[in-house]
Inverse folding.
């Protein structure tokens, strides 16, 4: 009898030990994006002499502001198990709409409202199609919207690029506050607002719930469809804001603006550790994800590596992030079974 | 200690007030008849086991009482008043809570988040779902219920996806019990659990009558049925075909009734 009890106690100890080491691994995975970012900055800092300079860091922040803005909205959509690839074309549409409405001769600050409004409309259409249209594939819906919105941008502009931008928008994209790029500061404030909404309001918790298990959400009585639509609407709005920053940085309204930015946005969210299975991720990690992309781009550029390589590096980054997400699910399952074994011993 | 109560089951249990009654429930899905006139009575403080082979109509009956399925004909009464259920929310508003085996918890949320989901209090009120949550208030609410429901060993800030099946089930049951006012329905609450965890859930269920609740439990495990139930109702081919007061040692009789061999 005694030996039996001894064996049971010992195996329980090893189970606890294994569980604890798995928990540490899980924590490391969650802290992954900041660890990667710091490692990259240090590595490029050592390799490229001018990488850690005020000027370059300012540049890096200003460049990543657009992807950050896109990433914030994209994160909400990915959180509820969707994806929105139409955001790149929303940049183009918002830019040419502003140019068409306010003209380029007298660009006014009135434009500030139009960018996000254009995005909101596209986002609402996306959400409506996915929720009410009964199409279970958000990817395909937003691919279709990508084509439609890009086409409308060409139609509005007649294919022409209009040079000029309102001074307020120009300042937001290029100005500095205490040495910090104004665009980056604006996105940071926006991120703070998103964090508050996601982590401290009922809406935010419900959004995580819908992403975690849409069926249980409906069964519990959460307004599932409205929640999903709100995610797409906000994603469109942040794409409009990204369009504003894009317009300010380029100083001209081209119907071909923002091509390829949807990939950067999705990459930022995924590299930031959000799960494509839904229900997981954090706003701060999305910012880190966007900074990781900008760091890789800028760092390789400083090292005189062909920019073609940065696209390869970022692609590999996505794949690694996805595999880490699968690994995370696996570890969680292990912890659960070890817990159950321990309880039933 | 649980068997004691089923042994000393008073025959007078049916003298107690009727809480829930289903009469002549019928439901067909196209050509498939799921319910062909099923009936069920549930009295104050009673634990009834709903038994039957797969396809006997148990889950359709439960879904009707839960507001997921609308009956073609038949009547459901709660406290002698006709009950019209158009959604799970209606059932909940009437004081009926259900724990489904596969629709239990959000893995990515914490214990207390899961416990309060859909019932969070926000301030300021006029902001609705955009209002703020109070973490302190929520932990307090959890603690108040947790000790009474013997899940106090579970940490409220723990993510539920990292907990064992039994702990998750305990939280799901606790949520249903805390907010139910009349009836708790449990669908296979021990199906995926180990011995000790099943034990804890059954102990928890056995105590529900003390809180003035009546319970319907669906289970395929006759030993578990004997441990918690006062009475068993057996269904076959969409009808209630028999019932039996549950005592120690009736397992074989129950199985015979389910199989339809007498």
């Amino acid at each position: 009898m005694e030996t039996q009890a001894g064996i049971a106690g010992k195996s329980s100890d090893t189970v606890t030990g294994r569980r604890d080491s798995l928990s540490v691994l899980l924590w490391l995975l969650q802290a992954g994006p900041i660890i990667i970012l710091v490692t990259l900055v240090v590595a490029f800092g050592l390799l490229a002499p001018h990488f850690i300079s005020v000027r370059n860091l300012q540049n890096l922040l200003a460049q990543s502001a657009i992807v950050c803005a896109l990433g914030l909205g994209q994160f909400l959509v990915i959180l509820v198990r969707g994806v929105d690839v139409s955001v790149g074309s929303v940049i183009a549409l918002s830019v040419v709409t502003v140019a068409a409405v306010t003209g380029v001769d007298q660009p006014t600050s009135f434009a500030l409202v139009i960018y996000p409004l254009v995005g909101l409309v596209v986002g609402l259409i996306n959400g409506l199609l996915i929720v009410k249209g009964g199409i279970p594939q958000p990817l395909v819906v937003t691919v279709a919207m990508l084509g439609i919105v890009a086409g409308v941008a060409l139609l509005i502009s007649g294919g022409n690029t209009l040079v000029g931008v309102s001074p307020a928008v120009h300042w937001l994209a290029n100005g500095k506050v205490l040495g910090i790029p104004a665009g980056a500061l604006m996105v940071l404030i926006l991120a703070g607002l998103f964090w508050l909404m996601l982590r401290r309001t009922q809406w935010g918790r419900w959004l995580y719930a819908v992403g975690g298990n849409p069926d249980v959400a409906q069964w519990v009585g959460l307004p599932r469809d409205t929640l999903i639509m709100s995610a797409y609407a906000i994603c469109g709005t942040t794409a409009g804001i990204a369009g504003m920053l894009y317009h300010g940085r380029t100083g001209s309204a081209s119907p071909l603006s923002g091509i390829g930015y949807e990939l950067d946005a999705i990459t930022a969210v995924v590299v930031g550790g959000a799960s494509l299975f839904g229900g997981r991720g954090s706003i701060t990690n999305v910012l880190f994800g966007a900074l990781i992309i900008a760091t890789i781009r800028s760092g390789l550029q400083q090292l005189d590596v062909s920019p073609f390589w940065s696209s390869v590096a970022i692609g590999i980054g996505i794949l690694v992030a996805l595999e880490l997400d699968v690994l995370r699910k696996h570890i969680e399952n292990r912890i659960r079974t070890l817990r159950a074994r321990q309880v039933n011993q | 200690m649980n068997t004691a109560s089923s042994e000393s089951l008073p025959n007078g249990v049916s003298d107690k007030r009727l809480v829930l009654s289903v009469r002549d429930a019928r439901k067909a899905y196209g050509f498939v008849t799921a319910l062909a006139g099923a009936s069920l009575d549930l009295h104050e403080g009673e634990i009834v086991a709903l038994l039957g082979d797969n396809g006997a109509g148990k889950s359709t009956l439960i879904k009707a009482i839960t507001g997921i399925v609308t009956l073609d004909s038949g009547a459901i009464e709660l406290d002698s008043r006709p009950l019209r259920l158009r959604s799970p929310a209606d059932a909940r508003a009437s004081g009926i809570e259900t724990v489904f085996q596969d629709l239990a918890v959000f893995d990515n949320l914490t214990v207390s988040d899961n416990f309060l989901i859909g019932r969070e209090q926000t301030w300021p009120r006029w902001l609705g779902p955009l209002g703020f949550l109070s973490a302190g208030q929520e932990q307090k609410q959890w603690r108040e219920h947790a000790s009474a429901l013997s899940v106090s060993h579970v940490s409220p800030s723990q993510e539920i996806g990292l907990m064992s099946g039994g702990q998750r089930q305990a939280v799901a049951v606790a949520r249903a019990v805390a907010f139910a006012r009349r009836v708790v329905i449990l669908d296979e609450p021990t199906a995926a659990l180990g011995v000790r965890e099943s034990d804890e859930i059954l102990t928890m269920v056995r105590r529900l009558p003390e809180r003035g609740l009546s319970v319907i439990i669906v289970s395929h495990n006759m030993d578990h049925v004997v441990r918690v139930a006062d009475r068993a109702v057996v269904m076959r081919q969409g009808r209630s075909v028999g019932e039996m007061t549950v005592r120690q040692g009736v397992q074989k009789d129950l199985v015979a009734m389910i199989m339809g061999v007498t």
